[in-house]
Amino acid sequence: TQQVVRQAHHLLAGMVALRPFTPLACTNRSYTRLNEDYRPMHVLCRFFLEHSGPTHITGHHHMKPFLVNMPRLFEQFVAAWLQHHLPAPWRLSIQESVHVGKHNELRFDIDLVLYDENGRSYAVLDTKYKKASTLDPADIHQIITYAHAKKAPRAILIYPALPEAPLQVQFGDTTLETVSFSLAEDLQQAGMTFLNNLLTSENSLTQFTSFIVE
Fold this sequence. Notes:
Trna Endonuclease, Chain: A, domain 1; 2 domains; six-stranded mixed beta sheet
């Protein structure tokens, strides 16, 4: 239980120290029935220590299958990258709750909301870890609802890769756009391209461009 874990953490906190390891520390180990349970953990540790990644072809190492919630991971990655690289005076709000309806009967959590120097909502951002060959109408309806609730002039869907025809259409006072944060190239360069696309548009404040152009 969580209580047992907390108690164990409290007891061991003063005894356990952080030690760096290399991938070789996870190999050529002898296993018996007493420590066999650690074999999958060592394999997983080697996977991360070698900075490996899964592929659809045969590799050099055996690996136990495991699942990663990529939509959630992509959302958290984009949020963390923006928090670290977003220039002042822009401000980012993560998982912001909004209520809509005559009596605020509906509640939504928006992935990301971008605010300008005056504290006004500049854009609502929704990450989508999926192929963007065709846009899901439900995704469009959702983010337009978010933009209207926040009175934001821009509603931006963020994909790992752009559709063949990137979208930029007007819905009343809101501009709906698709932007990519590519995971198929150097992440730092992909991030700067993403940030540049995010903060520069026909409606954006051009004085901030110098902060993001390398």
